[in-house]
Amino acid sequence: MILLRLFCNSSATSAQKAASTAAFCPPGGGEWAWRSALLRQLAVIWGKEVMPVDTHVFRVSARIGLTRGAKTPLQTELQLEKNIPSHLLPVAHHWLILHGRYVCTARAPKCDACGIAPWCKSREKQKMADK
Length: 131
Hints:
By secondary structure, the chain is mainly alpha-helical.
């Protein structure tokens, strides 16, 4: 309940939320996955404006240039929450997940079928390397 209260408390900082997640992470579950699952529940069930960062969100946001130099999910979350309007965070979270699952996949991204390829930072780097 303490963890839930902390997440529902809008005055709690992201650092406090991250520390509480690490403290209550169940054994055998990675902090990253557990934190993402908890934040996803808050976003969907209670309509909280948060940006859970799972592997898809982490990869896609770095590839398309929504984050810069983020090395951890928490850094990614903070950058995304800063740059995406709060009312769009829950929707953006789902868009990034779906884009990462079906278009911008880890091993073989489908850049030719991607609707945002013209703005993609990873695609720009790939074109420069090909020349």
